[in-house]
Amino acid sequence: MSQERSGPRRDSRSGGGSRDRDRDRGDDRGGDRPRYGGPRRPRRKVCAFCVDKVQKIDFKEVGRIRRYISDRGKIDPRRKSGTCAKHQRMLTAALKRARHMALLPYTAEHVRSLMSPQARAMAGGPPPPKPDRPPFRPGGYGPPGGFRPAGPAPMPQNVVAPAPQNVVAPAPAPAPAPAAKPAEPSA
Question: Exposed site from 36, 45, 128, 131, fewest CB < 10 Å?
Fold first, then answer.
């Protein structure tokens, strides 16, 4: 079956469309603006490490390498930072070492605060806090054979504790008498 179109038929081979005319006209108008109205490409960035002739990127220079981390704590790609491939590899290794040595965070603080305590524990963070509730006591403190905690037994509420008795402290022992000198023999 053939499909019928309404209106005049345009043949793509003829080149009579309005797009072709606009394309030809666009070249005559200066050529510095983009052809199809899209955003202009920014100028290519220059590697800051190549400009400074850096041979090795040190992970201890936190102030310098912190600029290459996004606000969420991710390492910026080359297309954003403008570093060359060689320095991007060194930069990535330095950033990972700085994270390992706890000089830089793995994630941003606001991202960590959004995590649940269980997810934070799974990611290697501190364990979630224990709930504030009394310990489970299956039998209570009531009948014999029930649960008894370690230590002294609790006092019943209706029993009065015996009053402490007056205990007399023993008298201090007398100090020993000095030894007598032996008598001299009379001769």
Answer: 131
